[in-house]
Specification:
The protein is α/β, with parallel strands linked by helices. The protein is built from seven helices and ten strands.
Length: 209
């Protein structure tokens, strides 16, 4: 299977080591492991939010250290546990992110389609400030997916959701990713979810994968 990321023995601040890992193109890869093993940091390494102190990471055969980070992050979007939404309506949040990327403003119909994909039923005039943490996270996921990146990196995207909603969300995201040829990389502590939805699993251990 074609490799999208080739992770060649990176270290981070001489604390975390990862060994040699590969993430295949397309499908959903789950990253598992104990707390403190560096799962969240690995996601940050994959979109160059942080840099390794040694070793190297390659995306499509190109060394991340030699790539323009703005260009990379348009293709490889990281959705952390703490997402950022403007203190504006849902519609305006979509518009702001599209404006930042110099993309045409999405229609209300398009916005609703992505909200539905993320199991949200809100008036587009609803303010992001009135939402729960789980709702804000799903609005942000909807925005990011609508931007049509090649890769979505997600750190515990279901941590604030009940099991039924978690399963429904991941089931729909998996179908969507397959249809669009999108690669998703998900950090999760939930073994049941990874067993149900992972196409590939990477087990990160303390001191190296």
């Amino acid at each position: 299977m074609e490799s999208l990321f080739d992770i060649q023995n990176p270290e981070f601040k001489d604390i975390l080591t990862y060994g040699h890992l590969q993430i295949p193109k397309e499908g959903i890869t789950f990253i598992k492991g104990p707390s403190g093993a560096g799962k969240s940091t690995l996601l940050k390494l994959l979109n160059a939010s942080v840099s390794p102190s040694s070793g190297a990471l390659f995306y499509k055969g190109r060394n991340l250290a030699e790539m323009d980070t703005v260009t990379l992050r348009k293709e490889v979007i990281l959705i952390g546990q703490n997402v950022y939404l403007f203190d504006l309506s849902i519609r305006e949040n979509f518009h702001e992110y599209y404006r930042y990327r110099e993309m045409d403003t999405p229609s209300d119909e398009t916005i609703q389609k992505y909200l539905k994909l993320c199991h949200l039923d809100f008036d587009l005039n609803a303010s992001a400030t009135s939402m729960s943490g789980g709702e804000r996270q799903r609005v942000y996921i909807a925005i990011c997916i609508s931007l049509a990146p090649e890769v979505i990196l997600m750190d515990e995207p279901t941590s604030a959701l009940d099991l039924t909603t978690s399963k429904a969300l991941l089931a729909d995201l998996k179908v969507f990713a397959k249809e669009k040829g999108m690669t998703m990389v998900i950090v999760s502590h939930d073994d049941a979810l990874s067993a149900s939805f992972a196409d590939h699993i990477i087990d990160v251990k303390r001191g190296g994968a």
